[in-house]
Design a protein that fits this description.
The protein contains 5 helices and no strands. By secondary structure, it is an all-alpha fold. It has one domain.
């Protein structure tokens, strides 16, 4: 079970890091390119400060999912990071449902459920 939890933690950390980096470095030019590549996609309609905050929170969650348990320094932070990420993803579910993006909402809900599982098992 420990190996399975580590695999899930690494996968969640990668998801966090990639999406967090995207949001933390998002610019108007990035959004323009994104919308051009996906016709019919709605603009994100998030303030730059809030988008950056979400990105930084996800980057910190990525570190929190791996580093405390790997180093043995304050390992209680790992389930707390997983719980925090589950909360972020619950917000993402609501965001995507309000925009009518059901497939994105389902993906966010699945990631939130995995995060809750990791939080519970590591607690």
């Amino acid at each position: 079970m420990n190996i399975a939890l580590w695999v899930l933690q690494v996968l969640l950390a990668v998801i966090n890091a990639v999406h967090g980096w995207l949001f933390a470095t998002w610019t108007p030019a990035t959004e323009k390119r994104f919308l051009e590549r996906r016709p019919g996609t709605k603009p994100l309609q998030l303030s730059p400060g809030f988008r950056t905050f979400i990105g930084l929170a996800e980057l910190l969650a990525a570190a929190g999912l791996i580093l405390p348990m790997a180093t043995g320094i304050m390992p209680i932070l790992t389930p707390l990071a997983a719980l925090g990420f589950a909360i972020i993803m619950a917000g993402a579910v609501d965001f995507h449902l309000r925009r009518g993006e059901r497939s994105n909402a389902i993906g966010s809900a699945a990631i939130s459920a995995v995060s809750l599982f990791v939080a519970y098992m590591r607690w």
